[in-house]
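Example 3.2
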Amino acid sequence: MSEEHTEPRDAHGLSDGLLADTLGYARAREYTGWDYADGMSSRLLQRAPIDNRWVNLAVQETIKRAPVNIRPLMRVEQRRNYKGIALFAFANLRAHQLGLGTGLESNRDATGGGSRDAVDYATEARTLCDWLVEERTPGHAGFCGASRHEIQYPDFKGLPSYPDLVSTSYAVSALLAASEAGLDADSPHDYAATVRSVEDFVVEDLEYEEIPAGARCKYVPAWSGEHYTLNAVALGARALLEVGSRFDAERPRERGRKLLDYVVSRQTERGGWMYRDPPEASHLSMDNHHNGFVVECLLAYDALVGDGRYDDALDRGLAFYREALFETSGAPNWDESSAYPRDIHAAAQGIIVFSRAGDLAFAERIVDWTLSQLYAGGGRFYYRKERFYTNRTTLMRWCQAWMAHALATYLRCRARADPAGGTVGTG
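Structure, written as tokens:
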């Protein structure tokens, strides 16, 4: 980047004003924007006289990979993303617990102009959680959620009516956290009771199957059972473990353990995980943020259960994640063999993982790299840094939601580690 934006720092490093600005940018736009693979939402494509998968793929991938944002030219619709709203709900909840609703929120525009005003983060989080409940995907055995736009895959078209395990798992986590914080006391919905049925979605719609290595399930009900997405299985396990912990129910806990057993059985000798099992079912190898999901789920198991079942796998996974998928500067590598593109989602996931692992110093190093390389100012983040240029597109879920969640997680973990020393409270 030709310019570097410097955020204010307190005695411990990152200022909570950055989280306020990031949430303010999204809130001013009602959490609505462009997304990573939203090319099928192009009004120009929708008006085409034919519906051909190769044309769809060409348009979708061109929009996704263009070095500049051509979505306005292609008239791509801006929408809310289900997973993104879950992340924003989480971030607003943490902002409330950190005591940020006292004059720190930002109404500044993307250039950094404007002022900060008080915001009721609890109400903001509750409103988003209510939306998650009301916009869940109907017609399935249990609670679930889906992307808000069509996605063209090489072999079939994903529809907004197709729920996926990753979006669902983040909604479960957000709603359970909001329930624990008592936010649903003023809501027409019982958040915890709503998501309890996610076990039925995993078992029936995603065809949960016990095997000698543990158990596995599909990512999307419409997909075949010819391959399994390992990070999605891990996130499904976390959702079941969280439900089991919330309701003190052994059956979802046991199923969550079996799913994690399977994921851990697929850990490579290097310590990381391929994207799919079998590996040849995907063009991705051991990429950054998907490995981060697996490590985060093992950390969640440790926090929820704490019996040491996956200690060795977690130690090896964390070591691989840090040594192979990040530079010492905090820059995220794309995968185990390629540095570029350096993606905002990978940076955000690294902040989350190392914060929760207790390595706040390395988490802050990733924050510093992100601010120097992928920050526009005014709470807005860029998509990714290629080898010779920076793609300055801002995607509401991929950039803003993930960074809001990451910054909130870092600040929450920092406050808990040193509640007396920072500028924010423990919540």
